[in-house]
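Hi Q.,

Before the meeting this afternoon, I wanted you to have the adenosine-5'-triphosphate prediction in hand. No need to reply - just skim if you have a minute. The sequence and ligand are here:
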Amino acid sequence: MSELVIKNLHVGIEGKEILKGLDLTIKQGEIHAIMGPNGTGKSTLAYTLMGHPSYEVTEGEVWFDGENVLELEPDERSRLGIFLAFQYPVAIPGVTVANFLRSAINSRRRAENPEDKGVPIPEFRKMLKEKMGMLKMDQSFAGRYLNDGFSGGEKKRAEILQMATLTPKIAILDETDSGLDIDALRIVSDGVNALSGPDLGVLVITHYQRLLNYIKPHFVHVMMNGRIVESGGPELALHLEEHGYDWLREKTEEAA
Amino acid sequence: MNEKPKVVVTSRSRRPDTAAKEFAFGQAELPGGALAEYRNRAFAAYARTKMPTTSEEAWRRTDLRFFPADAFRLPAEGAFEDLPAVPESLLAPLVGDKHGGQIVLTPGGASVELDEALAKKGVVFTDLKTAEREHPELLERMMAKTVNPEEGKFAALAGAFSQNGVVLYIPRGLQVEEPFHSVLWGPGENLAHLSHILVLVDEGASATFVHESASPTESGINSMHAGLVEIQVLQGANLRFVELQSWGKHVWNFSHERVRVERDANLDWIFGAIGSRLTKNFSELDLAGQGAVGRMSGFYFTDGSQHLDHDTQQNHLAPNTTSDLLFKGALKGKSRSVWQGMIYVAPGAQKTDGYQANRNLVLDDQARADSIPGLEIMADDVRCTHGATVGKLEEEPLFYLESRGIPRPDAARLVVEGFFDPIMQRIPFEGVRERFQQAILEKMG
Ligand SMILES: Nc1ncnc2c1ncn2[C@@H]1O[C@H](COP(=O)(O)OP(=O)(O)OP(=O)(O)O)[C@@H](O)[C@H]1O
Ligand SMILES: [Mg+2]
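Predicted structure with the ligand bound:
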């Protein structure tokens, strides 16, 4: 079992420090949730873990599977098993969902074996059909251009489809619940739960306790001002739902 | 100039101090034959027309001061024998799996194959010289019918001296499934490859014609091509015309092309341009009869220091005509592309539907694309739209793809493929799509 270990992570963007010493460890098999006010750096953490070039790590370490994650390119991190479901997935006009997923799978195969001829089309079709079925996606989706003209909910579903296809070891879901109607929320959560198990560590970023009724976290963390300021069990989310963040603000200010 | 420049200029940016050079071809080199009168007229235009300069609107963005016009000579009869032969890969069918006929034009030579059954039905598919001997009455119906050799220096040059060419005639009402394929193969140094392509699709007939110009790429030498393409699609006829420009990167390439589409006739015109050092191409669509439809789809991809300049014109000369142009190009290195398009609607050409769009994807900071759409509308009941964009490869899509395990070069290739997809969707021929796909792969290297 591997664990994603984040130690004293400091991250800036355009010279402004956003993450100010964040520590977090996620083991495969665990489900963690991060909650926190807008603009505290939750997406910054997600992007940084994935290796977005705009985010500059000024201090700290990230380890997974014996690898110094911060030294890897985004594609290497992905192949190592880290997955990010984006808060705002971008459109790739002209590239169909199927073509894109096949390229992603083939990149993995080729990294293992440079001679690889790519996944056989029938095998790929069958797999895709199955995963789309699980997420109750219409088969015609495979032929649409990736995220191009997708509704908010369709984009989120497509993110989970990618997760299902790439079978990561650590999945970070950045507000995958936002913009989903109740039915879609259930379908997406069922999808995530179906993929969960001892091999998958999940980090759910959300504003809504509601999601955590479907995806049951083992740990809940509160992030404020670039740090984890409180950690607990599922009950912490319920507490936040009721009391908001002010009590934590006061508490952290006192501590400081 | 009595003052010395104060800065040292590198050889790259040095401007030649003289004006453009002039060609060395003289009257003595005119071929005789059935076309003598036409050639004399073209020669007169050639002799009185100066090499174009950037002060002319059409040539504003294409500078010929480095063009070594005086270095070129015409290939002698049989010159191909001492030059590299056409690669087999260029002879494979791009459309379907079998040709109706194939012509290979080489410097000072030509080879022609035509399916016998098609010949019996009256199809003519042959090289220009043979046509001059065997089909002078047909040439009468084809020469100077859409392109006037007096239109410009290069039109006149090609009209006067073209040694090589293709003549395709489809008789009235004949529907031909198998594609006609011609390759203009232009190896060699300091050679002027001059070509004249003539196509007449008679009333109600239907055909597919693929023409490719190509040569090896050789560094440190010069070569040139000037060509005319004259096509007529008569009433109710149908032509799919695929034109591939794969000249080596030492070739200076010029062409004047015009297709005339008559009443209720249909043209599907596909361009692919990946080669040449410099290209100046004029492609025009004349929708001459009511109900005529013309579609133009262009794919170009430049790299290194290539310069491709495409001038397109959609002329709506009759009511109820439809044109639809989409040109898409990607640019790498220090290359440059120019697309200048015009939709013209003649007085009285009501209920016209004209569309033009040019999209460019600039992949390197030093590459540059110019995109200049234009409308000139002399009728009032028309629908004409146009669009032109020049974009860059954006970081966010690349990061998104990388985050799924796709290495950056592959991610960039995927984005570029996606960019070209709308063009691919317009090409009904898998072999042609594959060639474009191959070009993307090679250029993205
Ligand atoms: N590309 C960027 N350029 C400039 N500032 C940025 C950029 N990305 C993030 N920031 C800033 O960093 C801070 C943290 O943003 P981040 O997106 O990580 O917050 P978040 O916790 O995910 O918020 P939300 O709950 O609204 O999604 C914000 O102040 C934001 O404006
Ligand atoms: Mg966020």
